[in-house]
Backbone:
């Protein structure tokens, strides 16, 4: 039995701990073993604060979480924001331009104070809010400075993913950036945000030795986190981009990738 005191594991949710929204039982068992023996466990996700409380492994999280893809580090025990890397009002005109250039599409805007706004909502966005357990969102007709600061912006692009990302690559985005993806939503964050930067902020603030910080994730939005960790782990069925930057590959997410990480650490330490 290993003493994991001083060790931090940060994991992605979808496709890593959970498969098709169902948490792999081996992962829960392993995380409980890890935290019982002094380890700190948390998650890094694109999801919002409200969504995470419904997770069946929520009680296993014993360190602040990196939510909204690293725009926010949130302490659930104190129910307060520890860090925020936001999109500020100086970016309002750039966002207006992005909306105009890529219309027609739905633009979702998420504020630091947990409010959600949407321009020209479509079916995909409405279902997205429902999936994130955001029952109250405000339909707006323009992007005003009053809704800032924002933690992230989502563009509902459907099958236009490549087209919209190409447009963004050739657009002045001020101090914003987008996360490359192949899905129906393109996400825009502050350049100061990201799972990797949030993990560094979390580790420094709570005094974790950088050599004792580990991460596991399967997707393109996990790559900076995998590179930021001392060892970045990827499930064997993870994305090509995640595999390219990860240090080690563990079993597939279906077989308990997080459990595989903890088993590896148990053997090494």
Residues:
């Amino acid at each position: 039995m290993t003493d994991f005191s001083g060790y931090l594991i940060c994991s992605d949710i979808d496709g890593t701990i959970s498969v098709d929204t169902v948490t792999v039982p081996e992962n829960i068992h392993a995380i409980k073993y890890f935290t019982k023996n002094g380890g700190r466990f948390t998650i890094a996700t694109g999801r919002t604060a409200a969504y995470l409380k419904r997770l069946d492994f929520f009680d296993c999280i014993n360190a602040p979480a990196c939510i909204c893809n690293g725009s926010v580090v949130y302490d659930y025990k104190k129910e307060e924001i520890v860090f925020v890397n936001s999109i500020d009002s100086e970016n309002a005109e750039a966002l207006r331009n992005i909306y105009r250039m890529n219309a027609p599409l739905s633009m979702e805007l998420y504020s630091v104070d947990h409010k959600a706004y949407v321009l020209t909502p479509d079916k995909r966005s409405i279902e997205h809010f429902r999936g994130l357990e955001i029952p109250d969102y405000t339909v707006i007709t323009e992007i005003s400075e009053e809704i800032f600061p924002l933690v992230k912006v989502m563009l509902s692009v459907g099958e236009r993913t490549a087209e919209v990302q190409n447009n963004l690559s050739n657009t002045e985005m001020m101090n914003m950036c987008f996360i490359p993806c192949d899905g129906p939503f393109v996400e825009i964050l502050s350049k100061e945000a990201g799972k990797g930067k949030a993990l560094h902020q979390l580790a420094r603030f709570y005094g974790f030795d950088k050599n004792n910080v580990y991460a596991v994730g399967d997707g393109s939005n996990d790559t900076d986190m995998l590179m930021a960790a001392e060892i970045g782990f990827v499930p064997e069925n993870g994305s090509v981009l995640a595999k390219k930057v990860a240090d080690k590959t563990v079993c597939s997410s279906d077989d308990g990738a997080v459990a595989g990480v903890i088993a590896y650490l148990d053997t090494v330490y």
